[in-house]
Model the fold of this input.
Amino acid sequence: MEQVEEGVEKGRKSSADLPPGQRTRQAFQHSVDNIHVRGGIHCGPKDPEPHFTLMKRRYFIGAGCAASLLATGCDFSLRDGVFNACRTDLPADLRDHPLVLSAWRGLDPAKVWDTHCHVFGDGDSGSGLWYNPRLDQVWRPTGYVQKGFYVNASCVDERPGNVDRSFVERLLAQCRDMAPGFHALLFAFDWARDDAGAPMPERSTFHVPDDYVAGLAKKYPAHLVWAASIHPYDPRALDRLDAAAGSGARAVKWIPSAQNIDPADPRCDRFYARLAALKLPLITHAGDERAVHGFGEHLGNPLRLRRPLDAGVKVVVAHCASLGDGHDTDKGGAALVSNFDLFARLMDEPNYRSNLVGDIAAITQGNRMGVVGTLLERRDWHARLLNASDYPLPGVVPLIYLKSLFDQKLLDPAALEVLRRLRDINVLLFDFVLKRSLALDGRGFSASVFETSPFFKRPS
Ligand SMILES: [Zn+2]
Done:
């Protein structure tokens, strides 16, 4: 029988005294105190605490259960613990650990970019960062718990005035502990927009302005590069695209189901033509998107990306579409096929060999890891795969249950303890070392999967 490792914290401190990432941890501890783990998830009440009303308690219990559901397909696991401990300072024994050293061996760190990193904050620095206030409503437990886990994974200091700053400081500290030359590709995130291109904040989950992320990349060029997020229905989309390219954007990022974008809509054609002319890659989420909710998972069907592909756009399919099923619109649309198989179909089409790639962000999550074996096996794809973490998600401890990667013979058990320690200190390094350590029958991902920067090189 395995228990939640973190256990109940006796004598909680007042939240103002808590270090970054821990205020949420305290709040959420209430919810997970009610989750009993016996090789899986069961939700039910434990010893009630007097200062929690029954009503509130139910919400938190619901929140805990919702967290397990939202993450999942019931692959959300508490067996590695619940919260990221948000430790600082990489100790020498980890920095010089043979597993970490061998992860860097054979790679040119200057070419190693983590090509899928998110930024968020509450705008308390005047950044324009925004998230939907509904994420702060405990009676909407899914978003509430989700946000709590993201805050914890990125070790944000939630005291007013510290949120934006602490997110960036933590990210930079992690970049500094990577080999010199490493860069994180940070994503802006446009509003969900209506069919006329007007922002719909009430239906958006979060917003990250292009200018903010461009500014970070300009301020920290040794560690950060950036991708714009431009909704193709925005009447100013083409001007924004030109401006982003002029400001050094390396790509454009979309999550179609969250932003109300149909990649197969002819309205996107002018945008595609400009992207192709600028040679700016489009990184677009495909497969189900369970982290950010919105306008229907059908928008993430990989087959909808035929349109930009046929227009000559360089398309990066985020997560290799590794979640959910899509209608097989190539064959009338009646049959449901796994999105990953639809992605595989596109990858195997000779026409798309030069402009379709996949990123391997988040593939080690419990609900996605079924594709890891195939991706390792398909060595003919490796030149078209990009390593990426989906930062800060790998810092959400229950999302990646390391032992099941070992159970599937994809990870050496000797790596488990080192990886667990890395996750609490440096999520970027954790994800990188984990991906470098994955192997099937002794063969891991090719070096090219990690040397990603050439793909984003801009024409001079
Ligand atoms: Zn992502």
Q: What stands out?
A: The mean pLDDT is 86. The chain has one domain: 92-456.
